[in-house]
Amino acid sequence: MPGRKPLPTQLKLVKGTARSHRLNPDEPQPVVATPDPPEHLDEAAAAKFTEMAALLARHGVMTELDVGALARYVVIWRRWLEAEAEVKRRGPVVKTVGGNIIQNPFLAVANKCLAQMGQIESEFGMTPSSRTRVRMAEPSKTRDPFEDYLNRGSSA
């Protein structure tokens, strides 16, 4: 579908851009959780998953539905670490068997991983610029029509 990706209702409420006539009443409302890492992750990736899941849950961002996205993040993170180690070991440029000097292929892998990590970090609000788009509204003295919705997460 062309155009902007729709924002989740929770993000619209936090940003203060929610309009009752535009909200999806049937939108799933997952509960904040700290899920276990998927079994396919290696030990280092699983440890990073657990660390990041706890951090994201503390900030109200992690749910059971986000396991796949966070697993992709830690897999890419591990690949980035491995590529960076090879760049450090061999340098940013290498000689081919024919004697030509080229960019280290691991540098391209590292750069691609950084771009992919940046996209996922933005989805989770883990970058300074993605956090600036989220603002908390001052609590009103009168009952807000979204009060039940906002307070629902704090009673769970």
TrEMBL record:
Compositional bias segments (type: Basic and acidic residues): 136-150
**Pfam families (alphabetical):** Terminase_4
Region Disordered: start-end pairs: 1-36, 136-156
Q: Which InterPro entries match?
A: Phage_term_ssu_P27
Signal peptide interval: none
Domain of life (superkingdom): Bacteria
Record-given protein name: Phage terminase, small subunit, putative, P27 family
Give the species this sequence originates from: Paracoccus denitrificans (strain Pd 1222)
* Taxonomic path: Bacteria, Pseudomonadati, Pseudomonadota, Alphaproteobacteria, Rhodobacterales
